[in-house]
Amino acid sequence: MKIFGLSLLAASAILLGPMSRPGAQGPPARPTAEQNFLWYCIQCHGPRGDGKGVNNTAKLPVSPRNLTDGRDMAQFSDEDMTRTINRGGGASDLSPIMPPWGNTLSAEDIRDLVAHVRKLCQCQFDPKAKERFLREQGKMPAQSQALDPMKETSR
Questions:
Q1: For residue 143, what pLDDT is reported?
Q2: Which of 83-97, 110-124, 128-142 is least confident?
Q3: What is the pLDDT of residue 144?
């Protein structure tokens, strides 16, 4: 019985770590953006963010986005990425398969994840890239079709 009690005490110390020791200071450290990425995003986006996660199979209707593609990722503002992470892909007219993480991650965690994605893509937001993407998706008229407010129209 004494061995069982000592084993239980040792297991408790290992499982609870510093929180079980008297004088332990404060809550455990908040996970880094990279740790959160490796926990929540890796399954679809892959460990490098290239979209080659284990969930990326031929059965998916769309492939997870390659977060390392700077040309593609430049179309998304930090606000776009924050909304997508917070509310899911469907909230940004992207894949509805991407789940919302706003009830799981704090606003600070999401802001840090956006910065991590910026490191992965080595890019910043480019409004021209967003316009190009919207045109390609048919969600914005081509420049030649856009009305020019400076031209006079004859009636």
A1: 66
A2: 128-142
A3: 54
Integer angstrom CA distances of residue 133 from 9, 53, 75, 125 = 59, 24, 7, 13
Distance (Å, rounded) from C-alpha 135 to C-alpha 143? Answer: 9
Helix, strand, coil tally for the chain in percent (to 5): 50, 0, 50
Structure tokens at 130: 């967003």
40 closest CA partner among 95, 93, 117: 117
Q: Identify the burial level of 45 via C-beta atoms within 10 angstroms of its C-beta, where 0-12 means exposed, 13-18 middle and 19 or more buried.
A: buried
Give pTM, 2 decimals: 0.72
Structural domains present in the chain: 30-54+63-136 (1.10.760.10)
Question: Of 93, 121, 65, 91, which Cα lies nearest the Cα of 101?
Answer: 91
Q: Which pLDDT score is estimated for 13? A: 45
Distance, CA of 30 to chain centre = 17
Backbone φ and ψ of 110, nearest 5°: -65, -40
**How far apart, in Å, do the first and last CA atoms of the chain sit?**
100
